[in-house]
Request: fold
Amino acid sequence: MKKLLTVFFLLTGILFPVFADDNSLVLPSVTGIVENIKYEDTIELNQEEQTATKQLVTIKVLTGNFKGTERIVENMLTGNPAYDINLNKGDKVVLHVEPVSDTISTPDDVDFFIADVKRDNQLLIFGAIFFAMLLLIGHKKGITSIISIVSTVALIFFMLMPMVLNGFCPIASSVLVGILSTIITIYLVGGFNPKSSSAIIGTSSSLIFAGAISMLAIYLAHLTGFAGEEPMFLYTARPDLNFTGILSASMVIAALGALMDTSVSIASTINEIYETDKNLSIKQLFKSGMNVGRDIIGTMSNTLILVYLGSSLPLVLLSSNIDMNKFFNLNQVATEILSALTGSIAILVCVPITAIIAAFLIKKSKDKQDGGFHFDKIEIN
Reply:
């Protein structure tokens, strides 16, 4: 454990500064609280008689250089729940700060705009509940799980994101980050042993395959990478990025968890079977791993499909109001379907790869511990 943590912190200390993006694009923001709301007359937005209600919101700034000051900010309500920010007295909000002059010394030198309702406290509460239950139920394994979660999130935010923004290939970057996350997670949870090594090799091989097949799916289906609002917003800020590559990278990262689960389950099963009967050959261990893998395939593939269906439920409901031929050929629908299928195919590939590698490495390692590895023991005919 100590050796692994040392290696992890060395990797983060070396890699994160290298790939860190010094050109921060994050706009400054502060927190405020709504003290009063006044409504103005409804106004027309366009010739189609669409209207909006203007709110004059008195907000007290709670953080930043202008803490304690009050500003009146306009908030338009158009009747569209996707864009409206419905406020009540006492609500905390996030304010975007935009300078209006070259020198910022007084509150009049900046404009405040309501970005959204402040929600991070609720995120922290539910996060604390999750980690507390993880520790309560998992004990030591819960601690290693927390470390692996934090390391994976750190790799994505401090390595993958800067690499993509700095022009590195998104697919190669996602595969690299996925492999590093796999190594850290599996060795933390399972320890340094042939079982963990087999799971890492199986997951890493499947990640590379997932990257390749996602590229093929994107090319053949003529996907654009613009399957929602987020890529469009990103395009306005960074039109130079490779959006089809980013889509492929998202498919790889989305499949990572399921691939790790599959490989660890197969490798652990083969290890336990061999501990029970050390006379089993590699062929017999491989068959046992495949039997377990066949059971896993159904649930893991179903998990991926359900994740994508759940996240795209409004899109699924839209199918009742549109021609099915048109529906399945929509860019967004095709993207979601191919993402789920790509991850599921990667799981199918992961099963035999992990099974054969685990059977060989575990058999070889145990035979060495028992007094030497004999090639006659790996006869599979």
Summary: The two ends are 40 Å apart (CA to CA). The chain has a mean pLDDT of 84. The beta strands are 29-44, 51-61, 70-77, 92-99, 110-117. The chain has eleven helices and five strands.
